[in-house]
């Protein structure tokens, strides 16, 4: 029997999770209001608490839902990255203009101060850290842009196009290789995003067997923040996974918009 790749195995889990209408409804609820507790979600469904927990567990196993502890509560966040991987592998080849209607889950996740994205990548923590901090590698999956820094706590960083146009800047708050990188982020590519001010991005790397779980948390966003600030993360992380596991670049429209 032919052994399936990690990418295909992940896609299988996504399709199984999306096959159930209740689980799709749970994702719709998190799209409507991200970061809900189990009790909040339970109120919206005519089933037992155990039933809701069981469906959420399957969504978590597929990577479509990510949880984070806040005091005594556990919050549930919609994670669009696995759907992005499905899109990048198949849909974009045939129907890019209507890809956003594939699941009805858009990225206009407003009225929330925090966005959480999670992905599993078959690589080592050291190689993943290098891919995040090396400007040449970074440009292979972040729209062709480079991010340059000394990568020490308190140092600054700049994100630029190959011709030197500034796309963003910030400060490295925590630099703990190969486990965690916390940065402020100020977007500079347009007046609309400049007006949003400074937000924060946290990269958490956790080894899991022969792979890594990468969680990117983009927070300190104002309610109703411009989607441009966080809407590109699914494509960025999809490109990072693709490059580390296959050595290939994403070629979906917009994935290399700043390449020279």
Q: In words, what does this structure look like?
A:
The chain folds into two domains: 6-78, Winged helix-like DNA-binding domain superfamily/Winged helix DNA-binding domain (Arc Repressor Mutant, subunit A), CATH 1.10.10; 110-246, Alpha-D-Glucose-1,6-Bisphosphate, Chain A, domain 4. The protein contains nine helices and nine strands. The protein is globular. The chain has 260 residues and is of the alpha+beta class. Helix 1 packs antiparallel against helix 4 (49-61). It has a seven-stranded antiparallel beta sheet. A two-stranded antiparallel ribbon has the order 1-2. The N and C termini lie far apart (43 Å). Helix content is 34%, strand content 26%.
Quickly list its features.
single chain; 260 residues; alpha+beta; Arc Repressor Mutant, subunit A; Alpha-D-Glucose-1,6-Bisphosphate, Chain A, domain 4; 2 domains; 7-stranded antiparallel β-sheet; two-stranded antiparallel ribbon; 9 helices; 9 strands; 26% strand; globular; disordered N terminus
What is the third-level CATH name, the topology of the largest domain?
A: Alpha-D-Glucose-1,6-Bisphosphate, Chain A, domain 4
Q: In the CATH classification, which architecture of the largest domain applies?
A: 2-Layer Sandwich
Name of the top-level CATH class of the largest domain = Alpha Beta
Strand content: 25-35%
Q: What is the share of helical residues?
A: 25-40%
The CATH superfamily of the largest domain turns out to be START domain
Radius of gyration, rounded? 18 Å
Shape label: globular
Mean pLDDT: 85
Give the helix tally: 9
Distance between the termini: 43 Å
Can you summarize the main beta sheet?
A: 7 strands, antiparallel
Strand order of the largest sheet: 3-9-8-7-6-5-4
Q: Order of helices and strands, N to C? A: HHHHEEHEHHEEEEHEEH
Number of strands: 9
Task: Count the domains.
Answer: 2
Q: Ranges with pLDDT <50 over ≥5 residues? A: 1-9, 93-112
**Secondary-structure class:** alpha+beta
């Amino acid at each position: 029997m032919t052994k399936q790749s990690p990418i295909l195995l992940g896609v299988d889990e996504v399709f199984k999770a999306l096959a159930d209408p209740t689980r799709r409804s749970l994702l719709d609820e998190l799209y409507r209001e991200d970061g809900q507790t189990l009790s909040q979600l339970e109120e919206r469904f005519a089933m037992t608490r155990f039933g809701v927990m069981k469906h959420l567990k399957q969504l978590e196993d597929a990577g479509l839902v990510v949880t984070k502890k806040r005091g005594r509560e556990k919050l549930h966040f919609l994670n669009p990255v696995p759907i992005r991987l499905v899109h990048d592998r198949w849909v974009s080849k045939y129907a890019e203009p209507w890809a956003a209607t594939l699941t009805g889950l858009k990225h206009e996740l407003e009225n929330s101060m925090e966005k959480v994205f999670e992905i599993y990548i078959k690589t080592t923590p050291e190689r993943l850290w290098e891919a995040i901090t090396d400007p040449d590698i970074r440009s292979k999956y972040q729209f062709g842009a480079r991010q340059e820094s000394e990568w020490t706590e308190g140092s600054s960083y700049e994100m630029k196009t190959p011709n030197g146009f500034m796309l963003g800047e910030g400060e490295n708050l925590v630099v703990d290789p190969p486990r965690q990188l916390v940065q402020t982020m100020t977007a500079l590519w347009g007046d609309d995003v400049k007006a949003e001010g400074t937000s924060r991005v946290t990269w958490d790397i956790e080894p899991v067997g022969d792979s890594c779980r990468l969680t990117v948390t983009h927070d300190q966003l104002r309610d109703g923040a411009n989607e441009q600030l966080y809407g590109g993360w699914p494509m960025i992380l999809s490109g990072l996974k693709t490059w580390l596991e296959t050595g290939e670049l994403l070629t979906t429209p917009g994935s290399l918009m700043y390449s020279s």
